[in-house]
Structures are given as structure tokens and as C-alpha cells.
Amino acid sequence: MSDLKVERKESLSRDEAAQLLSLLSKAFATGNHAELPFSPSEVSLYIPDRVRAELEVEVEGDEVEVEVEFKWSMVEHETGLPIGEMAASPVTARQGNGARKPTRSTRGQKR
Questions:
Q1: What is the C-alpha to C-alpha distance for residues 46 and 11, in angstroms, rounded to an integer?
Q2: CA torsion sign, 45 to 47 to 53 to 58?
Q3: For residue range 41-81, what is the model confidence (pLDDT) as tens digits?
């Protein structure tokens, strides 16, 4: 199975960054489904009740990097079977017109 990787890199004001974090926080707090913006499309994700989390803060010279990472398996949700018994379906990307299409690409190396 191919991996999916969607990236969004842009310069944001502090308020815009807070709005993006708030959107993600609401998705985790209010249910098991998230619609995340990736202009001009959005990515629709299932979020389970439990996830693995990683928080990393790195300071190099005059630059600060904060990474928040959440991981979970899609296998059990997609198939109803325990992990390892069946491969998961791809995450769905929604185009600006509301249509959904499977989006797959090879996952790149982490920085």
C-alpha cells in the first residue's frame, strides 16, 4: 500500500496559527472526524478515541521549531478487524467542488 503525504507550508500571523491549531483541536475534541484545509482542497480524516502523540521543541541558533505529531492506525476503523488482519483504505482528499478522490503518494523522508 502506498502512503499518503499532504503538506501545507506557509507564513502565518500568530492569530492565523492559533485558528489553525483551534480547528485541529476542535476536530479532536468534538468527535472522530476532521476536515483539514489544504487549499484549494481539504483532507477528511477519521480520528480514533486514542492516538499516539509526540511533542518536539528544537532550538538551533536563532530559530525555534515546534513539532506536534499524532499517529494512529486506520486499519481497525476501516475494516472493523484488529490491526494486521487487513490493509487500510487511503485517506480521502476533497476537492474545492466537494468531490472526493483517493489521493496517494510515496511518503518522503522526515526532516
A1: 27
A2: positive
A3: 888 888 898 999 999 999 999 999 999 999 998 886 565 55
